[in-house]
Amino acid sequence: QVQLVESGGGLVQAGGSLRLSCAASGSIFSINAMGWFRQAPGKERELVAAVRWSGGPTYYTNSVQGRFTISRDNAKNMVDLQMNRLKPEDTAVYYCAGRRRSGSWLLRSSYDVWGQGTQVTVSS
To answer: Which residues is 21 bridged to in the sheet?
Structure first.
């Protein structure tokens, strides 16, 4: 089993920054990629950023390119999402997710371990 716990959400003004953290525990060896997803009211859950557990290229959705940075610390079993120049449209519940399955790491369906989510609200 793998457990994921997010922290770091909150309320921030547009243009501000927040850092989300995801602590992983349990059978970490089974994880091959980690992602941050978000879900706004009435919208589908979308992949915001992803990183392979072994390193290599990262992925960002177009709307956060240049503003968000995903990073991992294998020694601490943590994955962070640094969010800068936040916009009201970034408001959502953010979820940390782990991928143990094969297939495209950019598909939501390939992620099978989820945290409880943390609210990010950006005021205009």
So the answer is: 7, 80
Nearest-angstrom CA–CA distance, 54 and 59: 14
- Taking only the tens place, the pLDDT of each residue in 25-37 is 999 889 999 999 9
Residue 77 C-alpha from the chain's centroid? 14
b/e code 10-33 from CB counts within 10 Å (16+ = b): eebeeeeebebbbebeeeeeebeb
What residues does 52 pair with on adjacent strands? Answer: 33
Amino acid at 112: D
CB-side neighbour CA atoms (13 Å) of 16? 15
